[in-house]
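Q: How would the C-alpha cells look for this protein?
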Amino acid sequence: MGQKVHPRGFRLGVIETWDSKWYAKPNFTKWLHEDIRIREHLKARLHHAGLSRVEIERKANQVRVNIHTSRPGIVIGKKGAEVEKIKADLQRLTDKEIHLNIHEVRKAETDAQLVAENVAVQLERRVAFRRAMKRAVTTSMKLGALGVKIQCGGRLGGSEMSRMEWYREGRVPLHTLRARIDFGVATAKTTYGTIGVKCWIFLGEQLDRNAPGKLI
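A: Here is the predicted structure in C-alpha cell form.
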C-alpha cells in the first residue's frame, strides 16, 4: 500500500513554516476553530479571486490575516471598499482586532493551489481532462517550474467506473527535504460526480527556511 505524506507537512521546520503562527496552551481549541472559520469564509467569498493561501498570525488582542492572491484588485475593490467589507465580516468571527494584508502571487502558473483550481474549473466546464492536465503542466514548465505532476481521480470523462490518471514533466523529488515542493488540492463538482485534482510543483532546492529566495 502506498502511504502518502503531505509534501508541506513533511518539510515543516526544515524549509517550510506554518500558515498559522501563534502559540496558546489554554485557548488552543478556540483559536484553532477560529482559524478554520476564517479560512473557510475567505475561501467561499474569494473563490473567484485566485486565493492561494491564508496565513494567520496572533499576538495579544490582534489577529493579522495575510491573504495571498493572484488577483489583488478584486480583493481590494474600488478605493479599498471590498477590503473593508471582508474585514467587517471577519470581525464577526472573532473577538480580537483584525488586520488584513493583501499579497500578490506574481506567477499564478507556478502556484500549485491555483493550478489545481484552474484544472478543476476546466473540468467543470466539460473540457477534456487530458487536455486540461497537459496544458497546465506545459504552462507551468514554461514559466519556470523545474517539475510538475498533476493527478485527477474520479469519473473521468463521465465513465461509469472511477479511475485515476496523472501527467508529469521534469523532476518532482518528493523524498528530498531541501526540495521546495508546492502542493495544491482542488475539487471539480461535475454533473456526474466530484473529481479530485492534486498538483505538485518543484521550484528548486533550498537549505535555509529563513531565506526563501535562496535557491541552490
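The mean pLDDT is 91.

Residues 58 and 118 are 31 Å apart (CA to CA).

Upvote if useful.
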